């Protein structure tokens, strides 16, 4: 039970951290980069743009098309 | 003018990450995912070495909001109603994915927006989540261990399995894609004589 809680807790903490970082970026853009700026920079060059779009497409493929093992 | 990078074009970190991810997909028994990731990484390495993308100033023109919204809604309905893991899912999701990657690969580069704040905290969060997922994968050797170390797929499967919540998740996935589409630079200006990166003006 403890191991399960820890595993889920880490995922939840990561999700909360992303929300927290975005809120921090709204208030202190000089300290933390916002997600819009971050993705804007990633989408500006071909290598990172293709990687981001492929990662996004794979999420749909993984959850909608690939049945669990 | 571009700032010189500390790595050769074929070893861009994004390409390395794609290649490593592809190898991991092959290792975990997902050959289609693995082949796609490795193939895209090899193509990118080749393309970045041969012809750096031209740098433009424009962002891509989007289809009208009505058209975009209609297509998005149709996809949500189809992917929600169609049997899960069925042929319709394969065609729709596969088609969207292939088209998106192809469009992303054929655009100019553009001048990135200025960044003032730090971006490394996002990388740290992503790294922790990835290591947690990897740990769960490596430890889930039996059903009992699978329960003790659930992956994101295990945790979210009930939400994907129920139609209404699957519809919401599909909508979120597609809206994310539209957001990426809005950030796409303009199309490569010319094919042939002034192809991407071939002219001095492209730098």
Describe the structure.
The complex is a heterodimer of chains A (69) and B (203). Chain A is an all-alpha fold and 69 residues long. Chain A has helices spanning 2-27, 35-42, 46-64. Chain B is globular. Chain B contains eight helices and two strands. By secondary structure, chain B is mainly α. At the A-B interface, α1, α2 and α3 of A face α1, α2, α4, β2 and α5 of B.
**Which oligomerization state do the chains in this entry correspond to?**
heterodimer
CA radius of gyration of chain A: 16 Å
Helices and strands of chain A, in N-to-C order? HHH
SSE order of chain B, one letter for each helix or strand: HHEHHEHHHH
Instruction: Please give the largest β-sheet of chain B.
Output: 2 strands, parallel
Mind telling me the C-alpha Rg of chain B?
20 Å
- Mean pLDDT of chain B equals 86
Show unreliable segments of chain A.
Answer: none
Give the overall silhouette of chain B: globular
First-last Cα distance of chain B: 6 Å
Helical content class of chain A: over 70%
Instruction: Please list the strands of the largest sheet of chain B in the order they lie side by side.
Output: 1-2
Poorly predicted runs of chain B: 190-203
Instruction: Characterize the overall form of chain A.
Output: flat
The biggest beta sheet of chain A reads: none
- Secondary-structure-derived class of chain A: mainly alpha
**Percent range of helical residues of chain B:** 55-70%
What structural class is derived from the secondary structure elements of chain B?
mainly alpha
Strand content of chain A is under 5%
Q: How much of the polypeptide of chain B forms β-strand, as a percent range?
A: under 5%
């Amino acid at each position: 039970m403890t191991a399960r809680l820890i595993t889920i807790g880490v995922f939840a903490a990561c999700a909360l951290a992303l929300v927290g970082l975005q809120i921090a970026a709204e208030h202190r853009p000089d300290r933390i980069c916002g997600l819009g700026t971050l993705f804007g920079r990633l989408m500006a060059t071909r290598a990172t743009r293709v990687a981001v779009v492929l990662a996004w497409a794979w999420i749909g493929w993984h959850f909608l098309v690939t049945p669990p093992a | 003018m571009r700032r010189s990078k500390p790595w050769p074009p074929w070893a861009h970190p994004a390409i390395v990450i794609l290649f490593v991810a592809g190898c991991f997909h092959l290792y975990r028994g997902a050959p289609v995912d693995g082949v796609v990731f490795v193939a895209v990484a090899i193509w990118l390495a080749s393309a970045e070495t041969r012809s750096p993308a031209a740098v433009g100033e424009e962002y891509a023109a989007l289809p009208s909001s009505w058209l975009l919204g209609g297509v998005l809604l149709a996809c949500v309905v189809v992917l929600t109603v169609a049997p899960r893991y069925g042929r319709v899912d394969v065609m729709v999701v596969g088609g969207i994915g292939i088209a998106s990657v192809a469009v992303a690969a054929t655009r100019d580069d553009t001048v990135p927006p200025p960044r003032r704040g730090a971006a490394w905290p996002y990388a740290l969060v992503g790294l922790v989540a990835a290591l947690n997922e990897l740990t769960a994968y490596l430890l889930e050797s039996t059903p009992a261990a699978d329960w003790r170390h659930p992956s994101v797929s295990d945790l979210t499967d009930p939400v994907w399995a129920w139609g209404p919540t699957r519809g919401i998740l599909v909508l979120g996935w597609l809206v994310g894609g539209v957001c990426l589409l809005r950030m796409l630079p303009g199309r490569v200006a010319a094919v042939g004589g002034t192809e991407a990166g071939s002219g001095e003006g492209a730098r």
